[in-house]
């Protein structure tokens, strides 16, 4: 059917060096906790400018560990944007805390100081321990503004940053990489195959706080601690943890992928620029999601906002017409506050920014192996599907 191979909305890019790194790890002494774990952590910390990086099983485990390491639990509340993946909200529930859903800006999809302030006001008095901005698509949320409001509420920031590996932002004190610990207590990443680097399953937490890093390491492996110089068999547990380790095999892949991050970032930026040019004639009914002035993203998702109502088209026929031409799309995301579990727990919520975002959003293919001509093919098919050709 399509004019070329199927284009998913995102996919991993594994080359011969990546494969060689995994094969080498398979022949080494440790398949689980070996030297490649620390090597990957150190390389990752260096890549995002963070003092500490702790590898773990996946991005959801990274969020769960962050909640545990910050001591968040029953009676606490955590503010989360409604437009995100389920795990951002669920991690609060894993530890028995309650979720405060914030609205998002309808054009960026991001939590803002105004939507955070509104949500805290709506939630009323009571402890708010953490605010979890999500750098949706790779654009950086207003960390400076959010940090100010979080501080007033007595909360820390935890960035859920799986979309933003390689993204940077300037809040008036210089251009800084996401995850370096400048604005937040911790930042979480995922290496799911659609993310910017892939290990299959995999995650990371970065932090500038040595105590948080130590607690993350303990909790990642059952809460076990060994004291240097103690009896060689001895370990102690002061609090129960999990098995959230990332195996040596996958850390080998992660380290190899991380070496390719600069090239991935360059390619993603070039593809995004080409999309911007190609989509310009479809305005105002089709627009790229807005990049805030401080954000220098490496986009994970290429999300367009389509005024389906003005065009008299439904999203589903457009998605199906693109699929018939071999073009994959995805909706990022169904607002989490509207999930049956959360409606059951907190009742219905009216978040107009999230609703406006959800009505219009569609993520188009974006991954490093795409050719320039693939972008043109996607935009031409989208124009046809919307009757804009
Ligand atoms: C992918 C993702 C997660 C979860 O990561 P997994 O590795 O799939 O567990 C959490 N939050 C956001 C925003 C994500 O995109």
Automatic annotation (TrEMBL):
Coiled coil: none annotated. GO terms for molecular function: pyridoxal phosphate binding; transaminase activity. SUPFAM superfamilies: PLP-dependent transferases. Pfam families: DegT_DnrJ_EryC1. The modification N6-(pyridoxal phosphate)lysine is found at residue 195. Keywords: Pyridoxal phosphate. GO terms for biological process: polysaccharide biosynthetic process. The active site is at 195 (proton acceptor). Belongs to the DegT/DnrJ/EryC1 family. This is UDP-4-amino-4, 6-dideoxy-N-acetyl-beta-L-altrosamine transaminase. It comes from Phenylobacterium parvum. The gene is pseC.
